[in-house]
């Protein structure tokens, strides 16, 4: 569930109107896109000296007339220290920090980011670093083509306690991707004049505004070559992408840039380098690849059971049953609604799902009811783990149960607290994972919630539904209370509640609808400095708690809020979108971004969260959603039901598309292993695989699953065909195995038929895909023998890979990593065969044989020294059936 406040206004005419208007931010016109030319800048003091890993030198503020350009929005910091670290051959760090170390960087801990401990500087870096002394500026130059990929030398550097500004030059019309989290229709950024605000926020996906996660990372593709940069900073910021430059305007912390320059200049390698730093995406279990069903607003447990039955009755795969906050007793974590979701029935539901080899996941929220006698409050209070107000009392927000307190994940007792609650909860319901929500953290207070409200009920559980005058009054009261706390108790010299530089935050004031900026974390650090790390740190502690509970299973966590590196702990859904065509389309962009941020297990709510879906929209969405790395249909409370079996066309389209997904399970799983090892996304934009092809720079309508499967979905209303772009080479339709076109050396745009229940899917000539025979369940599908689809390229060759392990254990003692190579009529199967459980390969299908293997009728399997007949039931395709080969050692098959 979840969602922002605007979404709850659905059903009123006023908000319905606003749902259709794209940018809702009144403040956009107020954004100052200029750079601060008045700022005096800094110069290097003395001679830079070498460190073990690079260079270090102090900077001093330059003199300016009458201090002009000083204290623009905060207090100018005069003395800085620069560290340049040549960390690896493809990564350089440029850190500009205040000499006194008063500014709060991202903590060097798993709750922030564990920085690598390096002893020496990279031997042969792919980059050069240059700087100017007066004023100080720097450049990073890519060695292999001398391109200046980062260049601050012609722009001001501003370093104040609450305002930092830095700019890099980029080419006009630069191809920039990333910066988030924000919901965008297009993957390639608007680089003419745009702002991306980065600050974790509970908001139902308004386009162009900041939403749940904080990811100050981008990639640029220039002349077919890619590089990337992360500004590791957790403070609120505006990133201005303007013709010729990128400007960061940040309200705190330090400037800590990591610039990624892989030697092969490939986009995927940039993601690889980035995730070397922030952490690789978590490895998933087989079952997590199955289809998930959820809804906020299931009336009672019978309703949930009827939905699960509905899937069965319509022969649609369902792997995981989910329950949103509805099951809770007055929305309190770790409780049961005694009437609609009694504990015994919930326990039984978990047991039934397991008996049917399905899985069970429920929601847990961040805020805990501030109520005497409520266990999750009392225990946390005893351990003293909740965030504090400046007066030392527990900080109070408001979420679904009423007034709430918030665990401070930075507190030393937090893991003790969380391990207990999460562990006990998993045990009690025999859950397979948890869904953590409202972890921005969300709070419903209109201004900011106050202090001392234990056992008190708020004026309304949904304050945004009150008449505007009442809301205004509450806002004023809340603001007054928080201001008083600030005046009476806060020692900080900064303006934490209302910093002078107002980032373009969608909710306006920073504390609105989230934790107060003057709530405190352990070590007296104001929320102002850690806000965007709340969800990330909760993910880390939740993962620890799940592992503590079951030390052998891969944990399952789905989170709404995230930070750079959260992908190592959790998956992410893109939040509370709406059942609208724009959101079906933008889900592609969002998933591309999130994949690039290192969160491979990600998807959007299929058929849309808010608003009524339609049969056609839901059908198209199911078709595409069936291929999301994380695939779940999820709905809000008010809209009409949208499970895929509600309409026969939707059911039919879903059966077809999920049939393909389940067939591709070994391919997906192999991609997830690669992602876990290298960082690369499971879903990729075409430009990531074909960076030299300019046509793909702004293609965000089509999706590559890995390198070999191309989706060309219908994402526009009423369309029944797709103009799909195909990279050079042969591409075969998944359905009839016919090549799309014979031209092989250029990009082709081909109009594909896409009647309502059909999503065009193509396989790359040159690929070998490991497949299974689909059933309604993942485990059962996995029990079927493997088959191979060999799609020949124009030379009659193909390659592929298959990763096998037990599919669920955290540590694997046996794995197989198998490579398939097809050349000149011979299939060679090689690699490592550590997984000893017998895995059969039964069918080998070769596609595109006419030019290469036209007359072949027999195959001999060297390993078995026998010859088998081939069938040729379709033009251009030959099939070897009932091969019965054990995938436990290398072998060769000759097609004669
Ligand atoms: C950002 O770009 C989009 C798409 O071009 C545009 O609709 C939006 O208004 C721009 N935002 C600003 C602040 O200019
Ligand atoms: C952790 O909890 C214990 C037990 O309640 C308490 O005595 C201790 O003060 C807590 N630690 C901190 C750092 O608050
Ligand atoms: C932010 O807070 C200030 C001070 O209380 C108030 O005047 C202003 O209206 C608030 N802005 C928004 C967008 O809520
Ligand atoms: C961990 O989970 C697996 C799979 O559900 C189960 O088989 C195993 O018994 C669990 N281990 C413990 C210690 O609970
Ligand atoms: C959704 O559909 C229901 C049932 O047809 C209708 O009552 C409701 O008003 C619709 N909601 C919206 C926001 O259109
Ligand atoms: C789609 O078709 C319906 C029914 O003919 C029509 O009402 C709607 O406006 C069309 N939508 C678009 C985007 O053309
Ligand atoms: C629930 C919902 O629709 N949320 C947002 C969806 O996007 C529109 C358009 O950007 C916003 O106005 C809504 O608030």
UniProtKB/TrEMBL annotation:
Residues 1-26 form the signal peptide. CDD domains: GH31_MGAM_SI_GAA, GH31_N. One of its GO terms (biological process) is carbohydrate metabolic process. Keywords: Glycoprotein, Glycosidase, Hydrolase, Signal. Residues 679-769 form the Glycosyl hydrolase family 31 C-terminal domain. Residues 105-237 form the Glycoside hydrolase family 31 N-terminal domain. Residues 281-671 form the Glycoside hydrolase family 31 TIM barrel domain. InterPro entries: Gal_mutarotase_sf_dom, GH, Glyco_hydro_31_C, Glyco_hydro_31_N_dom, Glyco_hydro_31_TIM, Glyco_hydro_b. This is Maltase.
